[in-house]
Amino acid sequence: MWDATKCNLCGDCLVNCRYVDYDGDKAIAEVRLLMEGKDAEILSKCTTCMACMDYCPTGADPSDLIFQLQEKIGTSPIVAVGKPVLQELAHALEGHGEHRQVIPGDPDKPVLSFDSFRFEQFPEGTLDSQLFKGMTVVRGYDYANLAGNVHMGGESFVKKYGQRVLSNLASLGKEIVFIHNEGFVLPGVKAKEYGFKVNFKYMHLFEYLRNYVRDHKDNVTSLNKKVAYQANCATRWMHEYDAFLDEIFELVGVERPPRQYDGVDALCCSAPLIYVNRELAVDIQKKNFEDAISVGADAMITSCPICYGVFRRPSLQYKLPSIFITDLCRIALGERPWPNCAR
Ligand code: SF4
Ligand code: SF4
Known about the structure:
The protein is α/β, with parallel strands linked by helices. It contains 14 helices and nine strands.
């Protein structure tokens, strides 16, 4: 959450932004405009990657300020593209109709929330996997993560509808595992910022998978591969959960060689740009995949259905398989073969 009292106008956030080429003076001038609530060039250039949250040395969270102003001023191309989607979501969250799908499971098993995604946006067979056997499955606007709406000019959605979604989840009366980590952000990060009540237990997907693979390690075949990881933007809200990912990689026998676009320097998957600047989107994908290939990666691991969907095209182009994190575990457990996408 933006905290103006922490900003010392150093300009580091926008000097380090990969999607503009600002020197210190220009960056500071842009931050000044933002702090005055005025239109600034960065509002139209920003891909909503959230990297500047990590680049800010004081924890002021400039990305949040940018997202607030993108919504308020409305001149950013991503806001125009996202408008119909947000209108539909707002209509649903205002209580017009029921927007939920619930597949009941065993009483003693947790819920697996797909938030508002369609099941087809995840790898084939996910619902039938041993990983999630017996779990109640839910999806629909009533369980929408809301935090991800910043990519469409919907920064205010968490504040407006966060408690409603959390109450919908609480009414399930079970622990919730979020298959998309932006879903976890709502109870795990945003609820604290806004003072929402979270009347249910919840678990990050990485912790759930780490537990499952660790508890079934006798069934795991070490994959003996190198991988690159595409951290989706939501991971910047909760870096502490990356430790579970490291454990999963170790348990399934994959190595993650250091590369340029990793950690704080991870690139945007390019999804927010596809409809507003396709040329830039394709260029980002190229840099990302060529970087992964240059360190010998056998696959690009994703943990977000949006990244996973966007990477279908470059995965085929560069012949580097894109594997969703749940599928990496399924491969190690013998449920699926390693994808054949030979270079
Ligand atoms: S969110 Fe990403 S693209 Fe936007 S200003 Fe920050 S670093 Fe740049
Ligand atoms: S938001 Fe952070 S990085 Fe940006 S100018 Fe302020 S203190 Fe510096």
